[in-house]
């Protein structure tokens, strides 16, 4: 992902965590301007902590993080938009869609909480851009998961960020909504937005994202899915045996057990199991694994 421009985000030998306990150690990472990056790894290994380090809300035990050339945590508020996991939101809080989005303005201008007419016009334009223009006066808790995700995306974008961070944006939504969210993020990225998200969905990452960072307490590997989604790297990342298969131009990741592999292939290729069952014996599974290394 190298470019001629300086990186937007730089981690320089960063160790960070909570109290004296490190969650991420010795992180050296560059995120280029205009990148679309997925951060993957098992639960509890520092994916969300990596995002929080870019905002400056997690203590650094050593090293430095910079966003747009400015050190995070030195009093400067980085121009970063944050989209939380939907599961962490208090849905009992009574607020309309427009009110939730305007909260993103207050994050940028906390000394001026009264929205201006231009603020309200900006909200309307942004909701239209994200395909939810008709929902401005609806209560946030009455929306579908996909609509709620777009609202929080709008809240993150209203402050005109340089960097958009999303923590598990496809968690708890159905497959159709997941793909819609990822397609929307890809459109925003094509418009120039730098995006970093965490996720557990390896097959969605392989299908939609051009760059991946694998972590497990530290960075295991980074690169394109084509380069780093291998049995060895994913096994090192997850501490479990996974199998990577290249099929019809797609990268498919599944448990190493043959029946799990068949399920993954049939999910992405309806009818595949019926048409090709005789090829999904152990020999085919092992051959697919070798080809993906």
Alpha carbon gyration radius = 20 Å
- Measured by DSSP, the beta-strand proportion falls in 15-25%
Here the CATH topology of the largest domain equals Rossmann fold
Question: Helix fraction?
Answer: 25-40%
**Which shape, going by the Cα principal axes?**
globular
Calculate the mean pLDDT score and round it.
Answer: 84
Largest sheet: 6 strands, mixed
CATH superfamily of the largest domain: P-loop containing nucleotide triphosphate hydrolases
Task: Note the run of SSEs as H and E.
Answer: EEEHEEEHHHEHEHEEHHEEHHH
CATH architecture of the largest domain: 3-Layer(aba) Sandwich
Measured distance between first and last alpha carbons: 21 Å
The side-by-side strand order for the widest beta sheet comes to 6-7-8-3-9-10
Instruction: Please provide the count of β strands.
Output: 12
Number of domain units: 3
What structural category do the secondary elements indicate? alpha/beta
Describe the protein.
This protein has 293 residues and is α/β, with parallel strands linked by helices. The protein folds into 3 domains: 1-79 and 163-219, Rossmann fold (3-Layer(aba) Sandwich); 84-161, no CATH class; 241-293, no CATH class. The chain has 11 helices and 12 strands. It has helices at 47-55, 97-108, 117-129, 145-157, 175-190, 202-208, 225-228, 231-238, 258-268, 272-276, 282-292; strands at residues 9-18, 21-31, 36-40, 60-67, 70-71, 80-83, 163-167, 194-198, 211-215, 219-223, 242-247, 250-255. The strands form 3 sheets. Strands 6-7-8-3-9-10 form a 6-stranded mixed beta sheet, sandwiched between helices. Strands 2-1-4-5 form a 4-stranded antiparallel beta sheet, covered by helices on one side. Strands 11-12 form a two-stranded antiparallel sheet. The relative contact order is 0.13. The model is unreliable at 271-293 (pLDDT under 50).
């Amino acid at each position: 992902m190298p470019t001629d421009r300086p990186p937007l985000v730089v981690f320089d030998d960063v160790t960070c965590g909570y109290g004296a306990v490190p969650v991420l150690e010795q992180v050296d990472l560059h995120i280029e301007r205009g990148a679309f990056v997925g951060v993957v790894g098992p639960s509890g290994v520092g994916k969300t902590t990596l995002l929080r380090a870019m905002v400056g809300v997690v203590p650094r035990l050593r090293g430095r993080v910079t966003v747009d050339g400015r050190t995070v945590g030195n009093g400067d508020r980085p121009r970063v938009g944050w989209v939380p996991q939907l599961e962490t939101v208090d849905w009992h809080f009574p607020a309309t869609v427009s009110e939730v989005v305007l909260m993103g303005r207050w994050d940028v201008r906390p000394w001026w909480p009264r929205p201006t007419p231009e603020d309200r016009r900006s909200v309307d334009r942004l909701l239209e851009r994200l395909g939810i223009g008709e929902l401005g006066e609806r209560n946030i808790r009455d929306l579908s998961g996909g609509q709620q995700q777009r609202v929080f995306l709008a809240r993150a974008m209203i402050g005109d960020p340089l960097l958009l961070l999303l923590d598990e944006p496809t968690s708890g939504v159905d497959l159709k909504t997941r793909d819609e969210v990822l397609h929307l993020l890809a459109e925003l990225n094509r418009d120039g937005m730098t995006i970093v998200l965490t996720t557990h969905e390896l097959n969605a990452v392989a299908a939609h994202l051009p760059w991946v960072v694998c972590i497990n307490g530290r960075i295991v590997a980074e690169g394109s899915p084509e380069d780093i989604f291998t049995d060895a790297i994913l096994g090192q990342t997850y501490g479990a045996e996974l199998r990577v298969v290249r099929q019809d131009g797609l990268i498919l990741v599944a448990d190493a057990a043959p029946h799990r592999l068949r399920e993954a292939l049939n999910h992405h290729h309806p009818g595949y199991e019926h048409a090709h069952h005789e090829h999904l014996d152990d020999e085919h599974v092992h051959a697919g694994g070798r080809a993906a290394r």
